[in-house]
Every structure is written in structure tokens, then in C-alpha cells.
């Protein structure tokens, strides 16, 4: 019984051990350069390869920095392939539970071609696989993954080992072409050019994040902290021309934190270049009713077969094919009966856009009701078409040929209605400029008002009738176009019309009352006679001398002699208070010569103040005559005798104690 239990435990241990081992890649360093190329990378009669060489680290243990790898049973994207590392190839095997950090102090050199391609210096620990090839096709490609221990902490912001796939015609003195680039750019793939957001004080923004795969946990198939997604290196080549390719990776500056490139087994493809895919996502789809002539012509005695969406196109055996509909197209070229070279291309057509709304109306909300307001063009662009692909970009312009993109928040430049134009900016040549009408609805209910409320009364506040709704800030809320108020305060009404536009008007209600006249100060007997009316009262007042023309000032100037009536009006309509005042002036001369004209000297209008005393003196201060205001004036005599023509002085003592002095002339 114990023996059976022991056997069972042994079998389970072996099973789980094998299952666990299958989670990780394994490496085999017994492959020669020729075997790595011919048996692993390239398995196609459409290319011939030669001139193989491989070099790397000379570890004392005999281990190598390059190897064949097997990913069967693991989650690694490649089932097999080759690995080139800046450390031991055996250290690239998972799990990711140690730091691959090999190659210190062993005289392991870098590579000048790599340095020139990347614009760097001081490389070391270079691993290089290179060979020559001739292809019958005009395009070749292969798949790879770049992995590195430098995908940790803030290192991606500053550090990266370098690698390149260098291609040129064999024997050429031209510079190498680097194929290890971020897709659709000239940027080399490095830790520092492909990574997500690195947080923290020493962090940095994401760059080409879509090409980064993941930071790895312990149970990863490889022993690296992170890696890119599967990328494709590719190049256009000339058929039947000898090329040299150099696959190289190296540490930069120091040996620390190893990196590796994994190249998928059998991924070297030598085929036909039918051109770039024409995709909406790439911004280059075919326009409606366009066609595209595919040309797969190859030198030699060849046969051609064309396919659409994997289906053989019967009768299409020419080297060219004219595309008139979307789909996945492929060609198989049997070259001289020795190999079959393939090419493929993906074709999409720009859709016919269905316009469902090209007029947008908005209320004037900036408070001026002048037909100008701000439109959110981001919201508008999502409402124009019913079938706009998510990858399409729309920009707006003021004219069909405009080049200045309108801002997201755009205020129309033509009042009330304006046409702007929507353009699809990332798909060239397929779409017109679509006219978009912007309309501005206005709602005016008049300017804010200040209303006077007379003490003890009520007042009606109103706005025009006929709108959809009204809402006053009263408690409770009133919903009519007018309300009665009996107390001071600030009252607002919000009005909404049938277009959904709203406007608010404010009434400031202030208590008021008629004026109480407290005094009238008259400045007369002067060259500029004036009167200042003084009042009290809870109101704002204006003043008039005729009851028709009013002024804000309570002073009237340059007044002629006379009796005046005045009026003080409350500006808020709470009443008019009347009053009177008198403007006096003493004559400058009189002529007592018996002609019955201007025979006596007196002060006109002063008779209304009978207790006022007027006293006349000669130039020496001698009292000549004195009389009351309601008595006849002075006739120019003293004790019955006519006085000589001369200047005389007067003193007027008013009933209220006011004293006015002056002089006049007696003329004979």
C-alpha cells in the first residue's frame, strides 16, 4: 500500500513539474549560425541565404548570448525562434525571478554599425547574427519582440540598451537601413521610446504606449521585467539582388540590466509588395467609385492567382488586378515553377456620409441679445452625421477653402445666422466641405428698471405678455407677466419663449415720497443772481421753474429780477411740491429831472417786505434819506433842495436781519 502511494505521489510530482516547466520558454545553444537562419528563421524556396555568421559573449562557462528558443506550452507569442541577448541566452528563460545582469569585465565589445544607426556611443556586449539573402519577391518582413530588464522603476525615462536590424545591398558602401522602428515613424524601438506613463518624481509621460505589452510578474515565460508587443520589421527590396542583413543588440554605457530580441521562427517572409493597406484608420481609404490597380508583376515565367477575402477569383490570372470593392486581396505568384511568392493588401472604402442635421440653433446667452453667442463645435460635430466612423476627424472653417481651424468654443461673426463648413481632415480627397448653418435666437424683455414705490402705495411690475412661461422670485413664485408689490426690494422675472430661450429682467423697487422744502437761498443784488432750493425727503428729486423743464441740480443761476414759482418733483412719480422765491436788484442810477421817468430811486418788488428799511448816504457817509420798502423812494433832494449829481450809497436792512449794501448814481 505504501509503495502504491509513493508511486502516485511521484507521478503527480512529475506531472506538475512538467506542467510548471512548460510555462516558460527554453533555450538551446547548440545551433550554428546557418542552422539558426536556414532551419529557424527562413523556410522558403523564394529566397536563398548564404554567408552566415554569429558572435556574442565568450563566457568562461561556455554559454552563449544567442540561442534557439522554444515557447511551446507557454503564453509567449512565439512558439519558437531565436533570441539574441546582451547577457547569457540561458538567463532569458522564465520565470522572471532574477536579474539578468551578465557580461561584466570580459572584454565583450560593442558594435560601430549599431552606434551609427542609433546615434549613440560606448556600446558593449554586442550579439550579432548576419547573413546574405536573395529574394524572388520585392518585399520581406519578420516579427520580433524586444524585452528588457530596464523596464522597471523610472529607468524607461532615461536608459535603454540598443538594437537594430540593419539592411543594405551586399558589397554596397551605402549606410545601413534600420528596420527596427516604431511603426510609421523613423524612431528606433528602445525602452525610452516605447513605454507607458511612468509615475512618480522621476517619472515621464507615455510614449508610443500602444506598442508596449506589459510589465511582467514572476511567472512570465521569460526572465525580463517587460517587453513590447509583437512588432514587424519590413522593407521593400529588389528581386534577385543580393542583400546583407545584420541583426544586432548591445548594452549601452555599462553591462547592467540585460535586454534581448526574440525573432519569431519562420516569420521571415519574402513576398510581393502590393502597396500600403488602404484603410480608414490609416486615413487613406479609397473614395467612393474609385478603383485601384494592383500590380504583382515579377520577372520570369510565372503564373498568377488572385484572391478576395480568401476566395479564389476565377479567371483572374494576369499580373495585375483592378480593385473596385472593399476586401482583403492576395496574390500568389508561382515564380519559374520554383517557389510561390505571396502578397496581400487590405482595402476599405470611405463611406458615404449621411447628413442628418446641418442646422443648429442656440439661444443668445451672453446677456446682450445681439445675435452673437458661443457654439460648442465638439457637440455639433457629433450630431451632423449618422454614420461617422470613430476614426474620422472633423474640423470647422469659416470658408470652404479656409485653413484656420475654428476653436472648439466658437462665437459666430455674423449676427443671428452664419454658415460655417465642416471638413473631414484625416481622409484626403473623398469629402466636400459640408455647410453648417448656425442660428441664434434672441429674447429681449427690456432693460433692468428702477421703480419708485410711494409710501403707502403699491406698484405694478410687468414684462410683455405672450411668452411661454414666467417665473418671479417671489414667495410663493408667481407665474404671470405682471405682479403688484407694496414693499421695496429686488424683484426678478425669468421669461421663456417657444424656442426655449430664456431672459431675466430685474426690477429694483425703492421707497420714495414728495419733497419737503426747507429753505431757498437766494443770492441776488449781484451780476449772477441765483437761487438754491433745499429740501428733505426719502426720494430722488429734480427741479423746475416752469413746471415743464426739470433739472437734477437744485440751483438756478443767472436769474433776472422777479418773483419766481418753482417745483420739486420726485423722480419716481410720488408727487410735486411747489414753492416761490424772489430775486431783487437795486437800480444802478436814477434821473430826477422832471421828465416823469425814473424820477425816484427805490428797489422794485421790495414793497412786499414792508418792514425792510433802506438808508441812503452820500460819499462822506452822511445820512441823506431813509424810507421803508413800501414807501415811495428817494427823489434826489435833501430838506427840499435838489442834491448834486453824484454817487450815493445805500444800506438795505431786511426783516430777517439780512443787510445788503451798494451804491448808485444820481444823474441830472
From TrEMBL:
Record's signal peptide: 1-22
Keyword Protein biosynthesis listed: no
Annotated Pfam families: CHU_C
Keywords, comma-separated and alphabetical: Signal
The organism of origin for this protein: Flavobacterium ponti
NCBIfam families, per database record: Bac_Flav_CTERM, choice_anch_L
Residue ranges constituting the PLD phosphodiesterase domain according to the UniProt record: 239-272
Name of the protein described by the UniProt record: Choice-of-anchor L domain-containing protein
